Amino acid sequence: MIILNVHLTATFFQLSSFAAGVRSVLSSTPLQVLLYLNTWYFAAFYLAEILMFIYKGILLPYPPDNLVLDVVLLLLFLALETLRIFYAWKGNLCERSLSSFVSLFILFPCAALAVYYLLLQTFVLRLEFLLSAVLLCFYGLELLLGVISISAFSRSRVY
After folding, report:
1. Of 33, 40, 30, residue with least CA distance to 135
2. For a Cys-Cys bond, which of 66, 69, 103, 135 suits 87, CB 3.0-4.6 Å?
3. What is the pLDDT of residues 85-119, one digit of tens each?
């Protein structure tokens, strides 16, 4: 009798959740954790880059035009990364394919800027190389998880 009652109760909750239109959560927890960690990592990366530019500007024979270019690109990097994380966060939690797609689209200029700071600056310090390489690893994982999330969001839509 108890087994039958438990089975009927479970069946009732399944039917009532189906009738109420409740659906499963599709947002990606690993992607959300990665975005959270990337937010803090990028803040540390940005602060370290500013301090390294001060160091390079004082101690190294850095051409002034190149220093200005690198600082302007760093400001652009901050703006793009902030937008990218915002759209990825919003797209993942709200299960919106368009916001997630926009964040993946912005990921490519951010990755190009990370490669610039990894290899193409006038002077690249070992610390910059290491920090940029870790940032590119974050980007690779976020690209993979973002594509998986977009496919899950797109498959779930019933029109």
Report:
1. 40
2. 103
3. 999 999 888 888 888 999 999 999 999 999 999 99
- With CA atoms as reference, report the closest residue to 153 among 95, 90, 94: 95
Query: Nearest 5°: CA angle at 40, between 111 and 142?
Result: 40
Contact 34, 99 (CB under 8 A): no
The owner of tokens 């947002």 is 27
- Amino acid of residue 129: F
To 5 degrees, how large is the angle CA 35–CA 39–CA 42?
125
- pTM of the full structure: 0.80
Dihedral class, residue 95 (left if φ above 0, else alpha if ψ from -120 to 50, else beta): left
Angle subtended at Cα 113 by Cα 109 and Cα 117, rounded to the nearest 5 degrees: 170
Written as six digits, the tokens of 118 are: 């990894």
Separation CA 115–CA 128 (nearest Å): 11
Cα-flanking dihedrals φ and ψ of residue 152, to 5°?
Answer: -65, -40
